[in-house]
Amino acid sequence: MIYLDYQSTTPLAPEARDAMLQWLDTSEGSGFGNPHSPHRMGRQAGAAIDLAREQVGALLPAGGRVIFTGNACEAINLAMRGTAQHRGAQGGAVSVSAIEHAAVWDTAEAIGKRHVLNVATNGQCNTNQDLPQDTRLVCVMQVNNEIGTIQPTVEWHRKAKENNALFLCDAVQSYGKMEVTGADMIAISAHKIHGPKGIGALWVRDGIELDPQITGGLQELGLRSGTLSPALCAAFGAAAVVAKDRMEQDHEHAEELWTLARDMFADNWALNGDEDTRWHGNLNVRRKGLDVARLMSECRNVMFSAGSACASGSGKTSHVLKAIGLSDKAAKSSIRVGWGRYTSREDVEQGIGAILKAANSQ
Ligand code: PLP
After folding, report:
1. Model confidence over 65-101: pLDDT tens digits?
2. Residue of the CA atom closest to atom 7 of ligand 1
3. Does one domain contain both 232 and 175?
4. Are 70 and 77 in contact (CB under 8 A)?
């Protein structure tokens, strides 16, 4: 099997697995204690979580706190609903880019007046557009999950501030790969950086207040009640340490595979999204008349995606590809391949080779 779907999820790093196993082993003297208990075993588990919080936070700006959540969707909901509730009845618009993940997109609609920020055909959400006067929250992701384009989040943060609005950055696809700066709140997820599924985090700038969305035991500064898993937190921390240490190396590796993959998708294939202002571990391409469902069934040994992992299978046309001006037909003839740390040149050659062979025979 060849895995070329790194935007959907990433394989667990051995370092993260090792860190996790320590806390799953219940043999004598080991750590199954409740991290919120005041006794010795509890304090040991609590210390592992404190360390993980520091490790995860080391890739985020200074001057904020990391709140562990179950995943990034939960982090985004906490940020958006938590700040809206804290504001009370003031209402106001929530301005979101047209290419946000459903976690942001659907939540914006659920909590108020969703205002859509346009995205250019190259996949960029530029700041040369006005925010409604009553905008209370602006949400622009750093790297898009479908087309990989990088957004000017620092500028959006500045613009939000000028409009007295908060700025939430969904950094799920960029955290651990590049610097994440310029935001009031940042949502991240462990399983996109070779950590385990089931844990994410919300970084919140000091001074920003939000209402909890899960009440109960008052864990995570009272913002997210529930007993934390030391195993998941420790593994997230370990994955963050490796991501930090290997950032340059991982980046160079992604670039090398990008050059290889880009050359393979020549001739009849067109690139979706900007060529350069983009994470080069993501290639989203289309080919006129391509039957993607047939392609996927003919390449069962290659893991790749039609549109976004979330939208694929739903039968819906990708809202991201539509936002950059593609017709329904063009969007539906698009595929996404993605790679990262553990992808070899052979994986790319063989995986894309199989995709091309099947596409050419249609
Ligand atoms: N935001 C983006 C950009 C994503 O790619 C994803 C997952 O695909 C999410 C949010 C949701 O992350 P999680 O799976 O941790 O809920």
Report:
1. 999 999 999 999 999 999 999 987 666 899 999 999 9
2. 8
3. yes
4. no
- DSSP code, position 178: B
pLDDT tens-digit series, residues 151-180: 999 999 999 999 999 999 999 999 999 999
Domain that holds residue 99: 14-242
Residues 182, 56, single domain; the answer is yes
Q: Is 200 in the pocket of ligand 1 (CB under 6 A)?
A: yes
Q: Are the beta carbons of 67 and 204 closer than 8 angstroms?
A: yes
Write the DSSP string, 308-342.
Answer: -TTTTTTTPPPHHHHHTT--HHHHHTEEEEE--TT
* Burial of residue 106, with CB atoms counted within 10 A of its CB: 0-12 exposed, 13-18 middle, 19 or more buried: middle
Pairing, β 135-139 against β 166-170? parallel
Mutate to test the pocket of ligand 1, among 68, 74, 192 (most ligand atoms within 8 A of CB): 192
Same domain, 231 and 274: no
d(C-alpha 53, C-alpha 74), whole Å? 17
338 lines ligand 1 (CB under 6 A): no
For tokens 């790679």, name the residue: 339
Calpha distance 193→320 (Å, rounded): 23
Give the total number of structural domains in the chain.
2
Reported pTM: 0.96
Expressed in angstroms and rounded, the spacing between residue 346 Cα and the centre of ligand 1 is 28
Q: Which atom of ligand 1 is nearest to the CA of 190?
A: 15
Tell me, in angstroms, the distance from the centre of ligand 1 to residue 118's CA. Answer: 21
The answer to whether the CB of 103 is under 6 A from ligand 1 is: yes
